[in-house]
Design brief:
Layout: H1 2-18, E1 25-29, E2 36-45, E3 54-56, H2 57-63, E4 72-76, H3 82-91
Parallel strand pairs: 2-3
Antiparallel strand pairs: 1-2, 2-4
Helix pairs in contact: 1-3
Length: 92
């Protein structure tokens, strides 16, 4: 229950700093290691306009070989400063 609350708080924090306001993101914290992973939904497009929300077909095929233009995939997108943000959020 506590991890779920912290994950929800982290979604808000990461969205403010690294993602789009309406972008679908998820945060997972390993209960054994405490490792934080951030996952963001990206759309497969022919041309990447914003790499926070778009990915190329070749990138998508590395994740799912059946991907096609227009698909939405959840991809691991943990920011480099994930630990700092997690620590600040947990402290609050």
């Amino acid at each position: 229950m506590v991890l779920g609350a912290v994950e929800a708080a982290l979604v808000s924090a990461y969205r403010k700093e690294h993602f789009l306001p309406n972008q679908n993101i998820a945060v997972k914290i390993s209960p054994t290691t405490g490792k934080v992973e951030v996952w963001a939904e990206k759309t497969v497009t022919e041309t990447v306009i914003d790499d926070r929300k778009d990915m190329t077909l070749s990138q998508a095929k590395k994740i799912n070989s059946r991907s096609k233009i227009g698909d939405a995939l959840m991809v691991e997108s943990t920011p480099a400063n994930a630990g700092r943000i997690a620590a600040q959020t947990a402290k609050q």
